[in-house]
Structures are given as structure tokens and as C-alpha cells.
């Protein structure tokens, strides 16, 4: 067990320090939107994103006085809480550590996005649903706590509604397959309490913003071309892969070919999981794993469908986070119930932890060096109310060289462009400045253009 304690410490260390060597510190455009809502509290002006994550960030910002350190300390606190809870409650500690060594948990707990608290809450939802399904001495209080967590998940990410729908599907499965009617009615109670909470929050949004989930702010969905459909499907299938999730922004023939190769690997992994699950059904708590698999499928399918009806991000590791976590956690639990040795799985996990570090830091930049430069210039822009990247046409290419064969290629990283970096850092330092997709503000004197910020990225 000591080796898993050590690995848990390493995961916390890696998740905390990785973003120090990302050019914008792990802050992205959506991060700025969350920071803006947090800065506007207690009077938010938009329901584009729910209030859960902004409230958490603002709470930590009030302690640490900075939005970068607020999200960092929030993430590391959640990690430590999960590991301590798992260890002292003896709730699949080995499996939990390996789960957090997978691609999804390492990614989301290293950056400033709402997926981290969403998955944090999902972990505890799984704990209480596991207790309801496995522990015959569970109480109505356990059902109530699970319901509250479900509502909190929706208040952190609107996609929590798909988790709710998945549990509803599972309740129907219990009604048809299970002879335990008390268990079915416990899930009806869960759905009733959490459903009331979700409807109440939607009512709050409609009363204050005249929309339920900011649907009027998202714009029309992106055109669904054959290539975009393929990329989205590839992203969904990659949810089966617990370790590897590289998705280039380019849609070139070489890029799509690479992603198809990854998809083939993903399909083999999924097939292995299915066969392993079927072989082990007589030795596992069947209902619990059926629940996790239903959540995986429902969440992935409905999120893919929502991408056709509204303007959301392409399906990728981040978007498929909940599906990947439920599937991988199910596999890990089944694995340790059926295998006496953890050697192979542990080696693979450590190998891909190293891969995560190498891939994430393939072109490292010291965030605090970039931040210091922008910070020194912010006093000149006090009167600016908006931020707009007017350097989008300027492209920064990263050169990669193949050893031994003297070959190189260049690639444009979407999150490594100078304008993006300057906007993210400036927005982190002053979230009251709203970032703009289009330069539509009439009074240009109120707009901070990224070309006005000087940033030397060559020196470290």
C-alpha cells in the first residue's frame, strides 16, 4: 500500500506544478469566462456557465488574492481530499490512485476548468451510489446526500443533466431486471430530490436571465461537415482509452490518419474491457458496474448529440471526461477483484504518467516569466473594459525534430499563440475585463488589444 501512497503524492505534485511550465499557466478562454463570472459575484450578469465553479474559485481567490493561485489551490485541495477520503474510508484506494494517474484526471486537475470540481463531485456521487447498491444498511440520508451531490454537479456543469438521465436509465434497468423493489424506490427518491434541485436552478436562471442554460448566448452550432463529424466520433471513441488521448487541431490527411490509428487502439481497449467485464460478472457487484457503464454510454451519446444542436467544443478528452472516468474506474475495480498482481497495470500507469509529462511539457515556457511581463504593463490599461486578440493572423509554429534521421516538422498549437497567451494572462490578472470573440465594441478606447501588450517568449 505504501507505493500507492507515494504515487498519490506524485500525482498531487505533478498536477500542481505542471501548469507552471505552460505559457498561460493552464488558463484557457473558458477559464477567463469562469473568472469573469467569479469577479462579478454576487451579481453575475450571465448564465452562459453555471455558478458552481465561479463560486468555488471566488472563495479561494478571497483567501489567496489571485485567480491563478485560487484555481491552483482549489485543484490541489480537491485532490488531497479525494485521496484522504479514499484511504481512510478504504474505498478502492489503489483503484482511486490509478484512476487519477489516467489521462483525464491528470489533465483536468492541472488546468483551470470546471471539469475538476465536476469529476471531484462525480467521485463522491459514485461513492454514495455504490453504498446504496452494495451496502444493505444504507439509509435515506445516503440517498439525500447523493441527490445533493447530483444537484451540485449540475450547478458546476450543465452537462451534469446527462449523469442525471443516465441514473434514470439505470433506475428503469432496476425496475425490469432487479427483484429488489426497495432499491428501485431508493433511486426514484434520488431522482425526485435531485430533479427538484435541478429544476429549481433552471428556474433561477430563467427568472434572472430569461434563459435556462445560456442557450441564447452560445450561437449557432458549427457546420457539421464530414470531417468534423468524423473528428467528433473519434473523440467519443477515445473515451475508452484511459491513458492516451492526443488529438491534433489539424484536419490534414496525416492528422486524421493518426487519429484513426488511435481509434483502432481505442476499439481494442474497449473490446478488452467488455470481455473482461463479461468474464467477471459472477465475481463482481453487477448492478454497480452496470450503473457505471450506463453513465459512460448515456453521457457520451448525449454530449455528442448536443454538439450538433449548440455551439460547444469538439469531442475530446475534456468533453468526454466523465465517460472516461466511469469506464476506467469500473475496469480498475473489476481488475483488482480478479487479478492477484498489479505489476503490469502499475507499469503501464507509470509509463503513461511519464508520457503525460513529456507531452504536456513538450515545449515548456515558464508561466511566471510571461506573467511578470504582462503584470508590469497592466497599470497602463486600467480604463480598458474588454480584451480582444487582434493578432490572430500571426501564427507561431513549434518545430519538432526527429532524432537520428535529421528530419523536422512544424505545428501550430492552438493554445501556444502569442495573442492567446497575452489575453489569458491579462484576463487572469484582471477578470473584470471581458474577453471578446469579435471586435464589436464601438468605443475602441475601452478595448485592450493584445498587440498593445509586449511579451518576449524567447527568454526563460
UniProtKB/TrEMBL annotation:
Domain of life, per UniProt, equals: Bacteria
* Keywords per UniProt: Membrane, Transmembrane, Transmembrane helix
User: Which residues belong to the signal peptide in this entry?
Assistant: none
According to the record, the segments passing through the membrane are 67-85, 106-128, 148-176, 183-204, 256-276, 288-307, 319-336, 345-361
Quote the protein name from its UniProt record. Answer: Dolichyl-phosphate-mannose-protein mannosyltransferase
Amino acid at each position: 500500500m505504501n507505493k500507492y501512497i507515494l504515487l498519490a503524492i506524485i500525482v498531487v505534485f505533478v498536477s500542481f506544478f505542471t501548469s507552471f511550465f505552460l505559457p498561460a499557466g493552464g488558463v484557457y478562454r473558458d477559464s477567463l469566462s469562469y473568472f469573469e463570472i467569479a469577479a462579478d459575484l454576487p451579481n453575475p450578469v450571465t448564465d452562459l456557465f453555471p455558478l458552481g465553479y465561479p463560486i468555488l474559485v471566488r472563495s479561494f481567490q478571497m483567501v489567496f488574492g489571485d485567480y491563478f493561485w485560487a484555481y491552483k489551490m482549489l485543484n490541489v485541495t480537491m485532490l488531497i481530499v479525494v485521496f484522504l477520503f479514499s484511504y481512510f474510508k478504504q474505498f478502492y484506494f489503489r483503484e482511486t490512485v490509478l484512476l487519477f494517474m489516467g489521462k483525464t484526471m491528470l489533465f483536468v486537475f492541472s488546468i483551470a476548468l470546471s471539469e475538476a470540481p465536476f469529476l471531484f463531485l462525480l467521485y463522491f456521487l459514485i461513492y454514495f451510489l455504490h453504498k446504496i447498491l452494495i451496502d444493505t444498511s444504507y439509509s435515506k440520508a445516503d440517498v439525500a446526500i447523493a441527490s445533493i451531490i447530483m444537484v451540485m454537479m449540475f450547478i458546476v456543469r450543465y452537462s451534469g443533466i446527462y449523469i442525471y438521465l443516465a441514473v434514470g436509465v439505470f433506475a428503469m434497468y432496476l425496475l425490469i431486471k432487479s427483484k429488489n423493489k426497495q432499491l428501485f424506490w431508493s433511486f426514484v427518491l434520488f431522482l425526485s430530490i435531485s430533479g427538484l434541485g435541478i429544476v429549481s436552478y433552471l428556474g433561477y436562471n430563467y427568472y434572472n436571465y430569461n434563459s435556462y442554460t445560456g442557450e441564447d448566448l452560445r450561437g449557432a452550432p458549427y457546420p457539421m461537415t464530414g470531417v468534423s463529424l468524423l473528428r467528433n466520433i473519434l473523440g467519443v471513441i477515445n473515451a475508452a482509452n484511459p491513458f492516451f488521448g492526443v488529438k491534433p487541431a489539424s484536419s490534414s490527411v496525416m492528422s486524421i490518419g493518426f487519429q484513426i490509428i488511435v481509434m483502432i487502439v481505442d476499439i481494442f481497449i474497449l473490446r478488452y474491457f467488455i470481455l473482461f467485464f463479461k468474464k467477471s460478472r459472477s465475481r463482481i457487484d453487477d448492478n454497480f458496474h452496470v450503473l457505471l457503464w450506463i453513465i459512460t454510454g448515456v453521457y457520451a451519446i448525449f454530449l455528442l448529440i448536443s454538439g450538433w444542436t449548440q455551439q460547444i467544443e469538439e469531442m475530446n478528452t475534456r468533453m468526454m471526461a466523465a465517460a472516461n472516468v466511469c469506464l476506467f474506474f469500473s475496469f480498475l475495480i473489476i481488475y483488482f477483484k480478479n487479478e492477484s498482481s498489479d505489476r503490469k497495470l502499475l507499469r503501464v500507469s507509470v509509463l503513461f504518467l511519464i508520457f503525460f509529462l513529456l507531452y504536456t511539457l513538450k515545449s515548456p515556457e515558464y508561466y511566471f516569466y510571461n506573467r511578470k511581463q504582462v503584470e508590469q504593463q497592466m497599470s497602463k490599461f486600467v480604463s480598458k473594459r474588454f480584451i480582444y486578440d487582434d493578432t490572430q493572423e500571426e501564427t507561431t509554429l513549434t518545430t519538432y525534430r526527429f532524432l537520428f534521421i535529421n528530419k523536422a516538422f512544424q505545428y501550430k498549437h492552438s493554445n501556444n499563440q502569442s495573442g492567446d497567451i497575452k489575453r489569458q494572462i491579462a484576463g487572469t490578472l484582471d477578470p473584470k475585463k471581458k474577453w471578446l470573440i469579435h471586435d464589436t465594441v464601438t468605443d475602441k478606447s475601452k478595448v485592450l488589444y493584445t498587440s498593445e501588450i509586449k511579451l518576449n517568449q524567447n527568454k526563460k
